[in-house]
Design goal:
The protein is an alpha/beta fold. About 50% of the residues lie in helices and about 15% in strands. It has a 5-stranded mixed sheet with strand order 8-7-10-12-11, with helices on both faces. A 3-stranded antiparallel sheet has the order 1-5-4, with helices on both faces.
C-alpha cells in the first residue's frame, strides 16, 4: 500500500470518527452573541453560585433539551472555532439543529427588544434577559403561554422548568395520568416577557410587552407546531396572557374557555384559558377573606377543580391532538368538578394545605367540605382581584 493510500485511509477514518461524535453541528455564533442569549454568567455576584465557563453553561442547557426530547444517550460538546462557538450534538436525528437555530434567532429579536426597553429607561436593574432554554426542541406535546420566568429559575436552578409555578403544573399533569418523566414534553413555555424577574414583578412587567412583539409572534409560529406541521394545543395562563392573546389575535379566551388562533397563515391552534398556576395560593389565602378559613378553602377548592380540568384537557389534547377540544373539556370538567370531586378535594388539602393523605381524606368527609364540593362549578366568591 502506498503512503498516499495510507494517508487517505487515515483521513477517511478520522472524518468518520468526527462524524460519529457529532451527528449535528450547530453554529451558535460569536462569544458576544452566545453570552447574551444564554444569560452568561447565570448566577455570579462576585462569587459564582456555579462557576461554569460559557461553554459549560451552553452544554448544560442543551443537555436539558436533548434529554427532554427523549434522547437519553445524546451528548453535547461546545467548541470554539475561528471566534465562533459551535455545539456538536451526538445521538440525535438529522435536522435537530433547525429548532435550536430558530430559537437562537428568535432570541436575537428578544435581545433587540430588551435593548430598546433599557434605552427607554424601563429595564430594571434586577431583571435578566432569559430565553426558554432547556426545553424540548422537537418532541413537544403542548405549549404553555405564561407571563415571565421567576429570577431564581435562572440564578439558582439554571432550569427554566424549575419553579413553584412549573412544578405545581407538572404535578397536575401527573394527576391526569401523564408520567412524571414525560411532563417536560407538555411544558414547552413561551413567556410574553422573556425577562427573569422577582416573582412579585408582574405588575411592573405589564408595560413591556410591545417591546417583544417580534419575538413573541416568531416564537408562537415556531413552537406551536411540530416539524410535521401538526398544531399543538396551548394553555394560556393568567389574565395578562389571556389579555395579550385578545390584543394580538383578536379572540377572547375566558377561564376554562376555548379559542382558536392562527400564529401563521393556515395554522389553527386550539387554546384553553387557565388560572396562573400560582393563583391558587392567593385564592386560598384566608387573609383575603378577613381570616375566614372556610371561605378560603371554598375558593381554593374551586380553583383546584378548574386547574385539574385545564391540565386534564392539556394532557388529553397532547396525547391526541386531533381530539374534539370542546368535548374533551366537558369531560374533564365533569370528572374533576362533579364525578371525582372528592379526589379534587384530597389533592387540594395535600398539595396546598400540606395535609397528610389520611388527614385530607378525613377533612373531605366533613359536612362543611361536602357542602363546598357541591359548589365547585359555581363562580369564585367576591374578593380583590389580582393579575398573576
Amino acid at each position: 500500500m502506498t503512503k498516499t493510500a495510507s494517508l487517505s485511509i487515515a483521513l477517511a477514518a478520522l472524518t468518520l470518527s468526527f462524524m460519529a461524535q457529532a451527528d449535528v453541528s450547530v453554529k451558535l455564533g460569536s462569544t458576544e452573541r452566545v453570552t447574551r442569549l444564554f444569560a452568561y454568567p447565570n448566577n455570579c455576584n462576585v462569587i459564582c453560585f456555579r462557576d461554569w465557563t460559557l461553554g459549560q453553561t451552553v452544554e448544560h442547557y442543551l443537555t436539558q433539551s436533548v434529554q427532554r426530547d427523549g434522547y437519553a444517550a445524546a451528548k453535547v460538546t461546545v467548541r470554539t472555532d475561528s471566534d465562533a462557538l459551535y455545539a456538536d450534538i451526538s445521538g440525535v436525528p438529522d435536522g435537530y439543529d433547525k429548532p435550536l437555530t430558530a430559537l437562537l434567532d428568535a432570541g436575537d429579536l428578544a435581545y433587540t427588544g430588551a435593548t430598546k426597553l433599557n434605552a427607554d429607561g424601563k429595564f430594571a436593574y434586577n431583571w435578566y434577559l432569559f430565553l426558554p432554554l432547556g426545553m424540548a426542541l422537537e418532541n413537544r406535546k403542548s405549549v404553555e403561554l405564561l407571563h415571565f420566568p421567576p429570577d431564581y429559575s435562572l440564578t439558582q436552578a439554571q432550569d427554566y422548568l424549575r419553579s413553584a409555578t412549573t412544578d405545581r403544573w407538572a404535578e397536575l399533569l401527573t394527576d391526569n395520568d401523564i408520567p412524571a418523566d414525560q411532563t417536560p414534553a407538555y411544558q414547552t413555555i413561551i413567556d410574553i416577557a422573556p425577562i427573569a424577574a422577582p416573582a412579585n414583578a408582574g405588575k411592573d412587567l405589564e408595560g413591556v410587552y410591545s417591546y417583544f412583539n417580534d419575538y413573541q409572534t416568531t416564537m408562537m409560529r415556531q413552537v406551536s407546531q411540530r416539524s410535521s406541521g401538526t398544531s399543538l394545543p396551548m394553555v394560556a395562563f393568567g389574565a395578562p396572557v389571556r389579555s395579550w392573546i385578545k390584543e394580538q389575535y383578536k379572540v377572547d379566551v375566558p377561564l376554562l374557555g376555548l379559542a382558536t388562533i392562527s400564529p401563521a397563515t393556515g395554522q389553527a391552534v386550539s387554546v384553553i384559558g387557565a388560572n396562573h398556576p400560582s393563583y391558587i395560593w392567593y385564592a386560598a389565602d384566608k387573609s383575603n377573606y378577613g381570616g375566614d378559613e372556610t371561605k378560603a378553602d371554598d375558593a381554593g377548592l374551586k380553583v383546584m377543580g378548574q386547574d385539574l380540568s385545564a391540565a386534564c384537557w392539556q394532557a388529553g389534547m397532547g396525547q391526541k391532538p386531533g381530539a374534539d377540544a370542546a368535548a374533551l373539556l366537558q369531560q374533564c370538567m365533569t370528572r374533576w368538578q362533579v364525578t371525582d370531586k372528592v379526589s379534587t378535594c384530597k389533592l387540594f388539602y395535600t398539595s396546598v394545605r400540606k395535609m397528610k393523605p389520611d388527614q385530607a381524606a378525613a377533612k373531605c368527609r366533613t359536612g362543611t367540605v361536602s357542602r363546598q364540593l357541591k359548589q365547585l362549578q359555581k363562580p369564585l366568591p367576591e374578593m380583590k382581584q389580582v393579575k398573576i
